[in-house]
Amino acid sequence: MKYGKMRFSALCICLYICLLMSGLSSSAAARDVIVSSVTGSAEEEGPNSDILHAIADRLNVRLVLIQAPFKRRLIMMEDGEIDFMVGLLKSPEREAYIHFVEPAYKNRSDAVFFVPKNRSDRITRYKDLYDLTIGTTIGARYFPRFDADEKIRKDPVPRGELSLNKLLLGRIDAVILPEGAGIDLGYKIGISDRIEIAGFRFSRRKDIHIGISKNSTILKEIPHFESLVRQMITSGEIRQIYGAYYRLRGLPVPAI
């Protein structure tokens, strides 16, 4: 009977050790890997992939990137399927499942007008728009005055790429796009050397954040994560990564 009890106790100890080792292994795995998501390839995503990799490097973890549309990524954040994201606007709805790292790493989102190369002086003030036909994207909003102005001739199409092609064919005079998205799109379709940004632009404050899923296994690491990212932002490291993406490709650097 005594032998049986000793054997049972030994089995319990072994089981406890196995469970403990399993837990330690899972924790180590969680610390060694961090998961995020982007829309497509690194080129399609612009500088966001570079920023994600830089954060993972500073955390000394391996980054796993999943490709998914933006709306799907928000669902994945809510479910804890991915640990963190960049490129987030803060809202009460999102704050329910996302911890937003402060401060914002990007504070501007300018609406700009793309024109053919060497024609940047064609739009130097708002009233210059009245003499032109402007390519727009269906459903997009740029800035209140422009959006509501019915005196401006607008040529809406489903995708910005179509507007840029029309611009090069001379069918429209300019294309309005968010600055970063427009520069990235021009590079992606291989026309960066044939277009440029006009002198007039609409600048506005738009705080863009890095966020951590509140259902992520790294939630307990938020103080360390946030401290590291805050240091990267305040030191200018994120800004340098953002700018380097464009400079390495010979592109203008969007306002950040």
Features:
256 residues; D-Maltodextrin-Binding Protein, domain 2; 2 domains; five-stranded mixed sheet; four-stranded antiparallel sheet
The CATH architecture assignment of the largest domain turns out to be: 3-Layer(aba) Sandwich
On the 0 to 100 scale, the average pLDDT is: 86
Outline the low-pLDDT stretches.
1-30
Task: Provide a count of the helices.
Answer: 10
Encode the helix/strand succession as letters: HEHHEHEHEEEEHEHEHEEHH
What is the CATH class name of the largest domain? Alpha Beta
The outline comes out as: elongated
Question: How many beta-strand runs?
Answer: 11
CATH fold category name of the largest domain:
D-Maltodextrin-Binding Protein, domain 2
Q: What amount of the residues lies in strands?
A: 15-25%
User: Biggest sheet: strands side by side, in what order?
Assistant: 8-7-9-6-10
Structural class category:
alpha/beta
CATH superfamily of the largest domain: Periplasmic binding protein-like II
Gyration radius from CA atoms, angstroms: 25 Å
Q: What count of domains describes the coordinates?
A: 2
